[in-house]
Amino acid sequence: MRITSVNVGSAETIVHGNKSMTTGICKRPVSGPVEVTELGLHDDQVVDSKHHGGLDQAVYAYSADDYEWWASETGRDYPAGLFGENLTIQGLPSDMYVGDRLLIGDLVLEATSARIPCGTLATRMQDRDFGLTYRKAERPGIYFRVLNPGAVSSGDSVTLVEGDAGTVTVLDLFRFAYETSHEADQLRRLLEAPLAERVRTKIEATLATL
Fold it and tell me: Would you list the domain boundaries of the chain?
């Protein structure tokens, strides 16, 4: 695996139809090494801190291979950072296990959750139906916590290290977000993984209703 782009963003107002919002989703490639701390990339702004960012979702990565898939499916251009990811990575699998780690020099990242699309992504894509399109594609990208800080640059090599708790995939969590019926045993299985706290809270709340 290899980093093909490092992307950061500041607060911007985006508009589509009668919708207008200020967001940090508009990430753009930057050159040179970028420091990554436990709270994410230096100079990268998170506007909606209730739903994004924090220790368990400090870095969002998307696969360059999935960008190629989107381009082939739609015939449009998909520049790095369009989905709001911090790292665009060639060879990043969509079905990583929660707890799997990426080693990039000194930087160590641990997969914690899938990206669940919201209205902000649809506005960014200028397509109010994009959330459904994104759901059907099942190429959500991956959130990571930072286990060891470091610096990243475009062109850096990335090593995948499988975690010890490899039973729950990122796609399992992505599908959970859309399921309308649940089984207690399945939810308990999900909770065994080192999840992002926001996801854990949702699963625990769902389990409590059963």
Answer: 2-208
Query: Does the structure show a pLDDT above 80 at 13?
Result: yes
Residue 31, number of CB atoms within 10 A of its CB? 8
- The answer to whether the beta carbons of residues 195 and 172 sit under 8 Å apart is no
Any idea what the Cα angle at residue 100 is, between residues 184 and 55, rounded to 5°? Answer: 80
Average pLDDT of span 75-92? 95
Which pLDDT does position 52 carry in this prediction?
Answer: 84
CATH of domain 2-208: 2.40.33.20
Strand arrangement, sheet containing 87-90: 28-29, 2-8, 87-90, 59-63, 142-148, 107-114, 101-104, 159-161
Residues 72/87/23/196 CA torsion (nearest 10 deg): 110
The CA distance from 45 to 27, in Å, is: 9
* pLDDT of the residue at 58: 97
